[in-house]
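Hi! If you just cloned this repository, the fastest way to understand the data is to look at a raw example. We've pasted two of them here, unedited. The first protein comes first, obviously.
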Amino acid sequence: MEAAARRGSGGGGAGGPGGCGCKGIRACLLCEAAPPPQKNANFVYCPLTGFAVGEKESKFAGWAFPFPGVFLLENFISGDEELKIVELMDRNAWKPSQSGRRKQDYGPKVNFKKRKLKVGTFAGLPCFSQEIVARMRNYSVLEGFFPVEQCNLDYGPERGSSIDPHWDDWWVWGERLVSLNLLSSTVLSMSCDLDDSFQLFPAFLQQDKQMYSSRPPDVSQDHQTVDPTSTGSVPFKEVTVAIHLPRRSLVVLYGAARYKWKHAIYRNHIKSRRICITFRELSAEFSPGGEQEELGKELLGMAQTFQGIPV
């Protein structure tokens, strides 16, 4: 889910003044004059209930709202599997990318501005992903998931790695965005630019204490001052939701979380080396019955050989 902003903006290559991959308004610790401000989340996503809950120190403490379109699975792979995957990745070169990241791409060549897609030098997903992709399909949310693109992104605090709030392109990429978080935990920050408002509800009404049985740090438990019959309204633009991603966890964004909310990784949430593997499926245009069905079949067949090298 993180590579679309990079590919859509034409990133890549050592274009920054500090020998990095930054272009345009993007910057990292190697090239920027002053660090940008970091936005703090005022809600935290609870995977047990699917609600976003107000942070204790924010004005939204004691409030919650439904946050659909997120599937989070901890310990998707084992520690030994993680180390083996990273070892195999590091055998290939990492290319500089924007905002202090490094990248490895496995996927077709996309021109987002002209809306053109072609095979290019794509030869398939890497061999180590075959078992990962097969395991994904054991979960109903990923039934029938056949990715045709994989992007590996390497984040490091010494480079000030981050990625700005963005949507992944929906002309070429389909409903589900799937990412595997390796080597360290981080936070996926969700924000929305809509001008309208939505309703909040007292947090303690949501499945009683289950909301907090495995909560991330700093989620509010101070609910006594909130009227249980009341609701509140808040502009979308005032809200940022933190989705805590543990090491070796798998996260899927779909529905509202895919199309309404932007996602980002902020610099202050990168404490040590972190690798993200993002998988994408094709949109309806390249699927059976779509205008470019034949090209989609070709790309899907190629992806499923699992014999690819970084493009």
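Ok, and the second one:
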Amino acid sequence: MEGSKGFGGIGENGSSSEGRPPNPLAAGCRQCYTIDNAPVSCKKTLVRHQSLVKTRTSDISVEPELTVQNHTGDFTPIVRSGAWADIGFRSSMEDVYTCIDNFLGDCGLNNVVDGPNAFYAVFDGHGGKHAADFACYHLPKFIVEDEDFPTEIERVVASAFLQTDTAFAEACSLDAALASGTTALAALVIGRLLVVANAGDCRAVLCRRGKAIEMSRDHKPICNKERKRIEASGGQVSDGYLNGILNVARALGDWHLEGMKGTDGGPLSAEPELMTTQLTEEDEFLIIGCDGIWDVFRSQNAVDFARRRLQEHNDPVMCSKDLVDEALKRKSGDNLAAVVVCFRSEAPPNLVAPRARVQRSFSAEGLRELQSFLNSLAN
């Protein structure tokens, strides 16, 4: 099974806080690599997206309808993560993920924030895996190397998506064989703050006391808002596909596709939508996954399934594998990648519905009326 071998050296199955996959920051946070793999100083050579270099956090468009209301109360999350992926029924594997439970610590930036600091992401490549691998490696580096991180998280994360897209365009200009695209979803836990940035149709779902809270929105061309943006940018939606080619409205890469992107923008956007919330004691875990998972799981269904599994074994690695295996049983036709992030050390509690104080029953008259109604249906 290809899924058990890891993907591009970035994510390996069975990852967790005790044995997580290699992450792009562990080898030395102050270095990055040019196209010919020569190490250089990231602080001086990162490709800055000019429109966002000096932008304030308040200038980044964060959809108001995508903002989860904060809850009061003191709570310190204890992050534990696991991930799993599988090639599924496809001939090649283009899904990539990364799990970094100690995001700042791996860079030597300890004592910057109180509480946990973690980074998780999934990338669903199309037209090849190069864009997914590139984004998985460079996106977290652009975030952590920004001098405004973590004080201006939303601006930094939005900027990092666009910088990654621009950097990949430059890489493709030097090597045409890299031409491809990828959707991207990143989740950061900084103290009690959960920030999710999404560009594409990957999805993040938070379990809040058993209830599914969607932390992202699928960017499909047929969505009204995306369709309006596409048409305003000179594109069109044909049979549900952007310009008749892509079934996503936002993605990184795809610079080789005519009419999709340009220096002045285009119908295919790399700008993420962001959603934030303050974690509370009611927040149990987060599921992020590529669309192969969500093709066969509704958000609440996935939360219910994962919650039962965590109650059984309390292992985010096994839970991720359970989600992937169940998606295979449900005949998902895509590559599969799932990450489960737990926010507490104990398993989710059993939820017992309170008994009604008043016992209700049918009266004899009510039963007769019901029987008469059923008889009329039979006739």
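That's it. A detail worth noticing about the second one: DSSP finds eight helices and 16 strands in the chain.
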